[in-house]
Structures are given as C-alpha cells and as structure tokens.
Design a protein that fits this description.
Number of helices: 6
Radius of gyration: 16 Å
CATH superfamily: HUPs
Helix content: 40-55%
Bound molecules: 4'-phosphopantetheine
CATH topology: Rossmann fold
Shape: globular
CATH architecture: 3-Layer(aba) Sandwich
Strand order of the largest sheet: 3-2-1-4-5
Order of helices and strands: EHEHEHEHEHH
Largest sheet: 5 strands, parallel
CATH class: Alpha Beta
Number of domains: 1
Low-confidence stretches: none
Number of strands: 5
Mean pLDDT: 96
C-alpha cells in the first residue's frame, strides 16, 4: 500500500491546503495529513484545534482515504513509522520551492529513504496562505475565499476571541 504524508502547521487549514490534499490523495492509496509544529512559528490554534479543523474541512467520503493526525516529533520519524513512499507539499512560488528543496535535503540527511513530491498550487490559490488568513481575519476582513466553508465560523470565532483579549 502506497502511503503519502502531507505535513504542515496548518494554522489554519486553507482552501489551498485542501486542494493539495485532494490531489495528493489521488496519487496514493492513503494520504496522511499530519499537523505538526514548526519551531519558527507560534500557532494561533492549538494542535488539537488544527487537527479538528482539517477533519471538518473534508467530507466523510474523503476521510476514507485521507487520515488526519497530529505529530509532535520529527517528520522523518513519522515518515519511517508509517512506511511512507513520499511526503507531499504544495508550492506557490519560487521561494516556496527553495524552502521545500532545503527541507527535503535536510530530511534526506536524516533518512536517506526520504522523498518528496512538490505539487504546484492552482493559479487561483497562489495567494492563499495561513498567514494571510490570520492577517485578514484579525482585522475582520472577508476570508471566505481562503478557508473551507465548513470551518469559516470556527475560524472567525477564534479571531473575535483574540480581539477581545
Ligand atoms: O506548514 P509549514 O510550517 O511550512 O510546515 C513545516 C513542517 C511542520 C513540515 C516542518 O517544520 C516540520 O517538519 N516540523 C517537524 C520537525 C521536523 O522534522 N523539522 C524538519 C527538520 S529538517
């Protein structure tokens, strides 16, 4: 069985992330979306909230082939544990490509069996990022084109609570 891993901070999961997950799921028997920590980032949503938002964004049918989990260790350790054939990551720009190439090289140093598949994003999703969602959402702007409809209320609620603190 070919298992592919889609790791990320997903703070929060965007329509761009969902598109990558859906396309990647067609390339393997099982796709595992793993919510992780990035030491360079301080997430707005807890790891459990992020995991929950991803599940809410996918249909019951999709969840038969796409597993969602959290992982607080090294990416290569989960990769080995799940016996993955590749990691999948979406790229929107040349700078994304550079970052992903470096991440893949570093991970391959840790595990020579590591491989990565980079999927170019859809052109209408090239400007969507979790960072932009947080910036627009914090100031009460319209995030409906950026975030799956299924989670928009939960995401908006988080921004409202954040503004009251
Ligand atoms: O969505 P992001 O923030 O670009 O995802 C980056 C992520 C979470 C995939 C990366 O930071 C990661 O793999 N974190 C787990 C710890 C790890 O293995 N780091 C890479 C060592 S080279």
């Amino acid at each position: 069985m070919k298992v592919m891993l889609f790791p990320g901070t997903f703070d929060p999961f965007t329509r761009g992330h969902r598109d990558i997950a859906r396309r990647a799921a067609k390339l393997c028997d099982e796709l595992v979306v793993a919510v992780m920590e990035n030491s360079a980032k301080t997430p707005l949503f807890t790891i459990e909230e992020r995991e929950d938002l991803i599940r809410k964004s996918l249909s019951g049918e999709e969840l038969k082939h796409i597993k969602v989990m959290k992982w607080e260790g090294l990416l290569v350790d989960l990769y080995a544990q799940l016996n993955c054939c590749a990691v999948v990551r979406g790229i929107r720009s040349e700078s994304d490509f550079r970052y992903e190439a470096e991440l893949a090289l570093a991970n391959r140093l840790l595990n020579p069996g590591y491989d990565a598949v980079l999927l170019p994003c859809r052109d209408d999703m090239s400007l969507i990022s979790s960072t932009i969602v947080k910036e627009v959402g914090f100031y009460g702007g319209d995030i409906s084109k950026m975030v799956p409809a299924e989670i928009i209320d939960v995401v908006k609620d988080k921004f409202k609570k954040g503004r009251k603190q």
